[in-house]
Protein backbone atom coordinates (compact mmCIF):
# COMPACT_ATOMS: atom_id res chain seq x y z
CA UNK A 1 0.00 0.00 0.00
CA UNK A 2 1.11 3.60 -0.51
CA UNK A 3 2.20 5.80 2.36
CA UNK A 4 -0.62 7.10 4.61
CA UNK A 5 -2.27 10.22 3.25
CA UNK A 6 -1.01 9.84 -0.32
CA UNK A 7 -3.39 10.15 -3.26
CA UNK A 8 -3.41 10.17 -7.04
CA UNK A 9 -4.80 6.68 -7.62
CA UNK A 10 -7.99 4.91 -8.63
CA UNK A 11 -9.74 1.74 -7.52
CA UNK A 12 -12.44 -0.44 -9.03
CA UNK A 13 -15.73 -1.44 -7.47
CA UNK A 14 -18.20 -4.10 -8.61
CA UNK A 15 -20.50 -6.82 -7.28
CA UNK A 16 -22.63 -9.77 -8.30
CA UNK A 17 -20.69 -12.11 -10.57
CA UNK A 18 -23.24 -14.92 -10.38
CA UNK A 19 -24.27 -16.71 -13.55
CA UNK A 20 -27.02 -15.40 -15.76
CA UNK A 21 -28.41 -16.22 -19.17
CA UNK A 22 -26.34 -17.35 -22.11
CA UNK A 23 -24.56 -20.55 -21.10
CA UNK A 24 -20.89 -21.23 -21.76
CA UNK A 25 -18.60 -18.83 -19.90
CA UNK A 26 -21.65 -17.04 -18.55
CA UNK A 27 -22.50 -20.03 -16.39
CA UNK A 28 -19.41 -21.77 -15.06
CA UNK A 29 -20.86 -23.67 -12.10
CA UNK A 30 -22.77 -20.62 -10.86
CA UNK A 31 -20.24 -18.00 -11.99
CA UNK A 32 -20.45 -15.56 -14.89
CA UNK A 33 -16.80 -16.03 -15.83
CA UNK A 34 -17.22 -13.94 -18.98
CA UNK A 35 -18.43 -10.82 -17.15
CA UNK A 36 -15.92 -11.26 -14.33
CA UNK A 37 -13.04 -11.77 -16.76
CA UNK A 38 -13.93 -8.70 -18.83
CA UNK A 39 -14.26 -6.64 -15.66
CA UNK A 40 -10.82 -7.78 -14.55
CA UNK A 41 -9.38 -6.79 -17.93
CA UNK A 42 -10.95 -3.35 -17.64
CA UNK A 43 -9.56 -2.90 -14.14
CA UNK A 44 -6.06 -3.76 -15.40
CA UNK A 45 -6.43 -1.36 -18.34
CA UNK A 46 -7.41 1.40 -15.91
CA UNK A 47 -4.36 0.54 -13.77
CA UNK A 48 -6.37 0.54 -10.57
CA UNK A 49 -4.56 0.30 -7.25
CA UNK A 50 -7.01 -2.24 -5.79
CA UNK A 51 -10.43 -3.79 -6.29
CA UNK A 52 -13.34 -3.82 -3.86
CA UNK A 53 -16.04 -6.42 -4.60
CA UNK A 54 -19.35 -6.11 -2.74
CA UNK A 55 -20.35 -9.77 -2.62
CA UNK A 56 -22.58 -12.25 -4.45
CA UNK A 57 -19.60 -14.13 -5.79
CA UNK A 58 -21.34 -17.53 -5.85
CA UNK A 59 -24.80 -18.49 -7.02
CA UNK A 60 -26.31 -19.48 -3.72
CA UNK A 61 -27.58 -19.82 -1.15
CA UNK A 62 -26.39 -23.42 -1.25
CA UNK A 63 -26.91 -26.27 1.17
CA UNK A 64 -23.86 -28.25 -0.03
CA UNK A 65 -20.56 -26.91 1.35
CA UNK A 66 -18.58 -28.55 -1.44
CA UNK A 67 -20.60 -26.75 -4.09
CA UNK A 68 -19.89 -23.44 -2.35
CA UNK A 69 -16.19 -24.27 -2.25
CA UNK A 70 -16.20 -25.11 -5.97
CA UNK A 71 -17.78 -21.78 -6.87
CA UNK A 72 -15.34 -19.83 -4.69
CA UNK A 73 -12.42 -21.69 -6.29
CA UNK A 74 -13.75 -20.83 -9.77
CA UNK A 75 -14.11 -17.17 -8.79
CA UNK A 76 -10.52 -16.98 -7.59
CA UNK A 77 -9.30 -18.77 -10.73
CA UNK A 78 -10.93 -16.17 -12.99
CA UNK A 79 -9.59 -13.31 -10.83
CA UNK A 80 -6.08 -14.73 -10.60
CA UNK A 81 -4.46 -12.64 -13.38
CA UNK A 82 -5.71 -9.43 -11.76
CA UNK A 83 -5.10 -10.69 -8.22
CA UNK A 84 -1.41 -11.25 -9.05
CA UNK A 85 -1.06 -7.52 -9.75
CA UNK A 86 -3.31 -5.73 -7.24
CA UNK A 87 -5.15 -6.60 -3.99
CA UNK A 88 -8.73 -7.80 -4.37
CA UNK A 89 -11.02 -7.32 -1.36
CA UNK A 90 -14.41 -9.01 -1.10
CA UNK A 91 -17.56 -8.67 0.98
CA UNK A 92 -20.26 -11.29 1.57
CA UNK A 93 -23.65 -11.14 -0.13
CA UNK A 94 -26.90 -13.03 0.27
CA UNK A 95 -25.90 -15.40 -2.57
CA UNK A 96 -22.69 -16.29 -0.70
CA UNK A 97 -24.49 -18.20 2.02
CA UNK A 98 -24.36 -21.80 3.08
CA UNK A 99 -27.79 -22.73 4.44
CA UNK A 100 -29.74 -25.60 5.89
CA UNK A 101 -33.33 -25.91 4.70
CA UNK A 102 -36.19 -27.11 6.89
CA UNK A 103 -39.80 -27.54 5.83
CA UNK A 104 -42.58 -26.29 8.10
CA UNK A 105 -45.36 -27.74 5.93
CA UNK A 106 -44.38 -30.12 3.14
CA UNK A 107 -47.83 -30.01 1.54
CA UNK A 108 -47.81 -26.23 1.27
CA UNK A 109 -44.09 -26.14 0.47
CA UNK A 110 -43.21 -23.67 3.24
CA UNK A 111 -39.46 -23.77 3.71
CA UNK A 112 -37.24 -22.06 6.23
CA UNK A 113 -33.63 -21.71 4.98
CA UNK A 114 -31.40 -20.79 7.91
CA UNK A 115 -27.70 -20.29 8.51
CA UNK A 116 -25.60 -23.45 8.23
CA UNK A 117 -24.28 -24.91 11.46
CA UNK A 118 -22.15 -25.71 13.44
CA UNK A 119 -21.21 -22.06 13.08
CA UNK A 120 -17.49 -22.53 13.62
CA UNK A 121 -16.94 -24.81 10.61
CA UNK A 122 -20.13 -25.08 8.50
CA UNK A 123 -21.61 -21.57 8.41
CA UNK A 124 -21.42 -19.07 5.57
CA UNK A 125 -18.70 -17.10 7.32
CA UNK A 126 -16.65 -20.21 8.08
CA UNK A 127 -16.63 -21.29 4.42
CA UNK A 128 -15.96 -17.73 3.24
CA UNK A 129 -12.80 -17.40 5.33
CA UNK A 130 -11.45 -20.65 3.89
CA UNK A 131 -11.02 -18.82 0.57
CA UNK A 132 -10.85 -15.12 1.43
CA UNK A 133 -8.47 -14.04 4.19
CA UNK A 134 -8.93 -10.34 4.80
CA UNK A 135 -7.91 -8.19 7.74
CA UNK A 136 -9.00 -9.65 11.08
CA UNK A 137 -9.78 -6.25 12.62
CA UNK A 138 -13.57 -6.48 12.77
CA UNK A 139 -15.84 -7.98 15.40
CA UNK A 140 -15.58 -11.72 16.05
CA UNK A 141 -19.34 -12.39 15.99
CA UNK A 142 -22.57 -11.07 17.37
CA UNK A 143 -22.84 -11.21 21.17
CA UNK A 144 -25.77 -12.85 22.92
CA UNK A 145 -25.14 -10.48 25.82
CA UNK A 146 -26.28 -7.59 23.63
CA UNK A 147 -29.75 -9.11 23.49
CA UNK A 148 -30.11 -10.98 26.79
CA UNK A 149 -28.69 -10.79 30.30
CA UNK A 150 -27.29 -14.11 31.49
CA UNK A 151 -26.16 -15.12 34.96
CA UNK A 152 -22.54 -14.15 35.33
CA UNK A 153 -22.50 -11.69 32.40
CA UNK A 154 -21.33 -8.20 33.29
CA UNK A 155 -22.58 -6.51 30.10
CA UNK A 156 -26.16 -5.33 30.41
CA UNK A 157 -27.60 -3.48 27.45
CA UNK A 158 -31.08 -2.82 26.17
CA UNK A 159 -30.75 -3.51 22.45
CA UNK A 160 -30.01 0.09 21.43
CA UNK A 161 -27.15 0.68 18.97
CA UNK A 162 -23.89 1.31 20.87
CA UNK A 163 -20.79 3.25 19.93
CA UNK A 164 -18.01 1.20 21.57
CA UNK A 165 -15.52 4.03 21.25
CA UNK A 166 -14.17 3.54 24.76
CA UNK A 167 -15.17 2.11 28.07
CA UNK A 168 -16.18 5.54 29.33
CA UNK A 169 -17.73 7.18 26.27
CA UNK A 170 -21.52 7.02 26.03
CA UNK A 171 -23.25 7.55 22.71
CA UNK A 172 -26.69 8.97 22.03
CA UNK A 173 -28.42 6.67 19.55
CA UNK A 174 -31.05 7.68 17.02
CA UNK A 175 -33.72 6.71 19.52
CA UNK A 176 -32.14 8.71 22.37
CA UNK A 177 -30.88 5.73 24.39
CA UNK A 178 -27.58 6.14 26.21
CA UNK A 179 -25.27 3.72 27.98
CA UNK A 180 -21.62 2.76 28.16
CA UNK A 181 -19.98 -0.26 26.52
CA UNK A 182 -16.55 -1.82 26.49
CA UNK A 183 -13.94 -1.43 23.75
CA UNK A 184 -13.90 -5.20 23.34
CA UNK A 185 -16.34 -6.62 20.81
CA UNK A 186 -16.19 -10.02 22.44
CA UNK A 187 -16.22 -13.64 21.27
CA UNK A 188 -19.43 -15.67 21.19
CA UNK A 189 -19.78 -19.09 19.57
CA UNK A 190 -23.58 -18.80 19.72
CA UNK A 191 -23.47 -16.74 16.50
CA UNK A 192 -21.71 -17.19 13.12
CA UNK A 193 -18.30 -15.55 12.68
CA UNK A 194 -17.61 -12.10 11.27
CA UNK A 195 -13.91 -12.94 10.95
CA UNK A 196 -12.54 -11.91 7.52
CA UNK A 197 -15.97 -10.81 6.21
CA UNK A 198 -16.35 -7.66 8.34
CA UNK A 199 -13.16 -5.59 8.36
CA UNK A 200 -11.55 -2.29 7.42
CA UNK A 201 -8.41 -1.12 5.67
CA UNK A 202 -6.78 2.05 4.37
CA UNK A 203 -5.13 2.93 1.09
CA UNK A 204 -3.34 6.26 0.98
CA UNK A 205 -5.90 8.87 2.01
CA UNK A 206 -8.86 6.47 1.65
CA UNK A 207 -10.46 4.38 4.38
CA UNK A 208 -12.64 1.40 3.47
CA UNK A 209 -15.15 -0.25 5.81
CA UNK A 210 -16.50 -3.63 4.66
CA UNK A 211 -19.72 -4.91 6.21
CA UNK A 212 -21.86 -8.06 6.06
CA UNK A 213 -25.51 -7.28 5.26
CA UNK A 214 -26.42 -10.97 4.86
CA UNK A 215 -25.31 -12.10 8.31
CA UNK A 216 -27.18 -15.00 10.00
CA UNK A 217 -29.86 -14.51 7.37
CA UNK A 218 -33.20 -16.36 7.57
CA UNK A 219 -35.07 -16.09 4.28
CA UNK A 220 -38.62 -16.92 5.32
CA UNK A 221 -39.93 -13.89 7.17
CA UNK A 222 -43.17 -15.70 8.03
CA UNK A 223 -41.25 -18.39 9.92
CA UNK A 224 -38.44 -16.32 11.41
CA UNK A 225 -40.09 -16.34 14.83
CA UNK A 226 -39.78 -20.15 14.78
CA UNK A 227 -36.33 -20.50 13.24
CA UNK A 228 -34.76 -17.30 14.64
CA UNK A 229 -32.38 -15.41 12.40
CA UNK A 230 -31.84 -12.09 10.69
CA UNK A 231 -33.69 -10.58 7.70
CA UNK A 232 -31.67 -9.49 4.68
CA UNK A 233 -30.13 -6.03 5.04
CA UNK A 234 -30.45 -5.72 8.83
CA UNK A 235 -27.14 -4.76 10.51
CA UNK A 236 -27.14 -6.42 13.91
CA UNK A 237 -26.02 -4.74 17.12
CA UNK A 238 -22.38 -5.79 17.46
CA UNK A 239 -21.62 -5.01 13.83
CA UNK A 240 -23.27 -1.61 14.30
CA UNK A 241 -21.10 -0.99 17.36
CA UNK A 242 -18.03 -1.86 15.32
CA UNK A 243 -19.13 0.37 12.40
CA UNK A 244 -19.30 3.30 14.81
CA UNK A 245 -15.87 2.42 16.19
CA UNK A 246 -14.30 2.11 12.72
CA UNK A 247 -15.81 5.42 11.56
CA UNK A 248 -14.51 7.18 14.66
CA UNK A 249 -11.02 5.72 14.17
CA UNK A 250 -10.92 7.04 10.61
CA UNK A 251 -12.43 10.37 11.64
CA UNK A 252 -9.54 10.88 14.07
CA UNK A 253 -6.83 9.75 11.63
CA UNK A 254 -5.41 12.88 9.93
CA UNK A 255 -4.03 10.84 7.01
CA UNK A 256 -7.53 9.74 5.91
CA UNK A 257 -9.65 12.18 3.88
CA UNK A 258 -12.27 9.92 2.29
CA UNK A 259 -14.18 6.96 3.72
CA UNK A 260 -16.23 4.39 1.80
CA UNK A 261 -18.60 1.80 3.28
CA UNK A 262 -19.15 -1.44 1.34
CA UNK A 263 -22.12 -3.76 1.85
CA UNK A 264 -23.94 -6.06 -0.54
CA UNK A 265 -27.58 -5.18 0.16
CA UNK A 266 -28.36 -1.55 -0.71
CA UNK A 267 -29.88 0.75 1.89
CA UNK A 268 -32.01 2.11 -0.95
CA UNK A 269 -32.79 -0.75 -3.36
CA UNK A 270 -33.91 -0.25 -6.93
CA UNK A 271 -35.65 -3.42 -8.09
CA UNK A 272 -37.39 -6.60 -7.05
CA UNK A 273 -34.13 -8.60 -6.86
CA UNK A 274 -32.55 -6.30 -4.28
CA UNK A 275 -35.87 -4.78 -3.15
CA UNK A 276 -35.43 -6.26 0.30
CA UNK A 277 -32.18 -4.44 1.07
CA UNK A 278 -32.86 -2.30 4.11
CA UNK A 279 -36.42 -1.68 2.96
CA UNK A 280 -38.59 -4.83 2.70
CA UNK A 281 -41.46 -2.93 1.15
CA UNK A 282 -41.22 -0.29 3.89
CA UNK A 283 -42.41 -2.75 6.53
CA UNK A 284 -40.71 -1.74 9.77
CA UNK A 285 -42.11 -4.85 11.47
CA UNK A 286 -39.39 -6.83 9.67
CA UNK A 287 -36.68 -7.47 12.27
CA UNK A 288 -34.42 -10.23 13.63
CA UNK A 289 -35.60 -12.83 16.09
CA UNK A 290 -33.05 -14.02 18.62
CA UNK A 291 -34.05 -17.23 20.40
CA UNK A 292 -37.62 -16.48 19.28
CA UNK A 293 -37.60 -12.94 20.68
CA UNK A 294 -38.12 -10.09 18.17
CA UNK A 295 -35.52 -7.33 18.12
CA UNK A 296 -36.53 -3.94 19.50
CA UNK A 297 -35.75 -2.18 16.23
CA UNK A 298 -37.33 -2.69 12.83
CA UNK A 299 -35.54 -2.67 9.48
CA UNK A 300 -36.25 1.03 8.73
CA UNK A 301 -35.17 2.13 12.20
CA UNK A 302 -31.92 0.21 11.89
CA UNK A 303 -31.29 1.62 8.40
CA UNK A 304 -31.64 5.09 9.91
CA UNK A 305 -29.14 4.25 12.66
CA UNK A 306 -26.63 3.19 10.01
CA UNK A 307 -27.23 6.40 8.06
CA UNK A 308 -26.95 8.47 11.23
CA UNK A 309 -23.47 7.07 11.87
CA UNK A 310 -22.23 7.39 8.30
CA UNK A 311 -23.70 10.81 7.47
CA UNK A 312 -24.24 12.68 10.73
CA UNK A 313 -21.45 11.32 12.91
CA UNK A 314 -18.79 11.18 10.20
CA UNK A 315 -17.52 14.07 8.09
CA UNK A 316 -15.28 11.90 5.90
CA UNK A 317 -17.72 9.26 4.61
CA UNK A 318 -18.18 9.80 0.87
CA UNK A 319 -20.23 6.91 -0.46
CA UNK A 320 -21.94 3.59 0.11
CA UNK A 321 -20.72 0.91 -2.32
CA UNK A 322 -23.55 -1.61 -2.81
CA UNK A 323 -24.52 -4.45 -5.12
CA UNK A 324 -26.90 -4.45 -8.07
CA UNK A 325 -28.14 -6.96 -10.65
CA UNK A 326 -26.43 -6.57 -14.01
CA UNK A 327 -26.82 -2.80 -13.77
CA UNK A 328 -25.45 0.35 -12.20
CA UNK A 329 -26.81 3.61 -10.81
CA UNK A 330 -25.89 6.59 -8.64
CA UNK A 331 -28.12 7.94 -5.84
CA UNK A 332 -27.52 11.12 -3.80
CA UNK A 333 -28.48 10.45 -0.19
CA UNK A 334 -29.43 13.52 1.85
CA UNK A 335 -32.35 14.93 3.80
CA UNK A 336 -34.17 15.82 0.57
CA UNK A 337 -34.34 12.15 -0.44
CA UNK A 338 -37.82 10.65 0.16
CA UNK A 339 -37.03 7.56 2.23
CA UNK A 340 -40.02 6.62 4.41
CA UNK A 341 -43.21 4.68 3.69
CA UNK A 342 -46.52 6.48 3.83
CA UNK A 343 -47.84 6.68 7.38
CA UNK A 344 -44.49 5.88 9.01
CA UNK A 345 -44.90 6.57 12.73
CA UNK A 346 -41.37 6.11 14.09
CA UNK A 347 -38.83 8.89 14.49
CA UNK A 348 -37.51 10.23 11.18
CA UNK A 349 -33.79 10.94 11.40
CA UNK A 350 -32.63 14.15 9.67
CA UNK A 351 -29.51 13.89 7.50
CA UNK A 352 -27.04 16.77 7.79
CA UNK A 353 -25.13 16.40 4.52
CA UNK A 354 -24.96 14.45 1.24
CA UNK A 355 -23.25 11.19 0.46
CA UNK A 356 -23.77 8.88 -2.53
CA UNK A 357 -24.99 5.32 -2.90
CA UNK A 358 -23.08 3.79 -5.83
CA UNK A 359 -24.44 0.46 -7.04
CA UNK A 360 -22.85 -1.84 -9.59
CA UNK A 361 -23.46 -5.38 -10.80
CA UNK A 362 -21.60 -7.23 -13.56
CA UNK A 363 -23.58 -10.50 -13.55
CA UNK A 364 -26.81 -12.12 -12.54
CA UNK A 365 -30.21 -11.96 -14.20
CA UNK A 366 -31.48 -8.78 -15.83
CA UNK A 367 -34.29 -7.28 -13.75
CA UNK A 368 -37.20 -5.79 -15.67
CA UNK A 369 -39.65 -5.20 -12.83
CA UNK A 370 -38.94 -2.00 -10.93
CA UNK A 371 -41.57 -1.43 -8.22
CA UNK A 372 -41.98 2.16 -7.18
CA UNK A 373 -39.90 3.21 -4.18
CA UNK A 374 -40.08 6.62 -2.51
CA UNK A 375 -36.64 7.42 -3.99
CA UNK A 376 -37.12 5.84 -7.45
CA UNK A 377 -37.09 9.17 -9.31
CA UNK A 378 -33.84 10.24 -7.59
CA UNK A 379 -31.50 7.73 -9.26
CA UNK A 380 -28.95 9.25 -11.63
CA UNK A 381 -27.00 7.77 -14.56
CA UNK A 382 -29.00 4.55 -14.50
CA UNK A 383 -27.52 1.83 -16.70
CA UNK A 384 -29.27 -1.47 -17.36
CA UNK A 385 -26.06 -3.11 -18.54
CA UNK A 386 -23.29 -4.88 -16.58
CA UNK A 387 -21.44 -2.09 -14.80
CA UNK A 388 -18.07 -1.53 -13.15
CA UNK A 389 -17.33 1.68 -11.23
CA UNK A 390 -13.89 3.29 -11.30
CA UNK A 391 -13.32 5.70 -8.39
CA UNK A 392 -10.55 8.25 -8.93
CA UNK A 393 -8.92 9.88 -5.91
CA UNK A 394 -6.77 13.01 -6.30
CA UNK A 395 -6.14 14.86 -3.07
CA UNK A 396 -9.43 16.23 -1.76
CA UNK A 397 -11.24 15.47 -5.02
CA UNK A 398 -13.03 12.18 -5.74
CA UNK A 399 -14.88 11.17 -8.91
CA UNK A 400 -16.87 8.04 -9.79
CA UNK A 401 -17.10 6.74 -13.35
CA UNK A 402 -19.45 3.94 -14.47
CA UNK A 403 -18.17 1.79 -17.34
CA UNK A 404 -19.56 -1.24 -19.21
CA UNK A 405 -16.82 -3.91 -19.07
CA UNK A 406 -17.75 -5.55 -22.39
CA UNK A 407 -17.97 -2.40 -24.55
CA UNK A 408 -15.83 0.02 -22.49
CA UNK A 409 -18.68 2.50 -22.90
CA UNK A 410 -18.87 5.15 -20.18
CA UNK A 411 -22.35 5.34 -18.64
CA UNK A 412 -21.86 8.26 -16.29
CA UNK A 413 -19.34 10.28 -14.30
CA UNK A 414 -19.99 12.33 -11.19
CA UNK A 415 -17.91 14.25 -8.63
CA UNK A 416 -18.26 12.75 -5.17
CA UNK A 417 -16.24 15.57 -3.69
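^ C-alpha coordinates above, recovered residues below v
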Amino acid sequence: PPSPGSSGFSFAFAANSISGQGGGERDVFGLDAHALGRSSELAMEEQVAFVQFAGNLARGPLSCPQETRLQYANWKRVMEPLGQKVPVFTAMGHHDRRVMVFSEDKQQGMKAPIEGFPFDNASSGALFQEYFLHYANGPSAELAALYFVFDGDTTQVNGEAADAISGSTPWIGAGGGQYTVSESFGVDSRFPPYLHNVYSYTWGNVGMIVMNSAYWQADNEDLISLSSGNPAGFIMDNQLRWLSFALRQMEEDPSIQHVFVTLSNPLFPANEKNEMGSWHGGNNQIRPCIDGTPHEKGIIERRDEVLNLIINKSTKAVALLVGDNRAGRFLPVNDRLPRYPEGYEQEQVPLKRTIWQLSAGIGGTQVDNHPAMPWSSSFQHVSMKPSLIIIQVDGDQVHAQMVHPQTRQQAGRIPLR
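The chain is about 20% helix and 20% strand.
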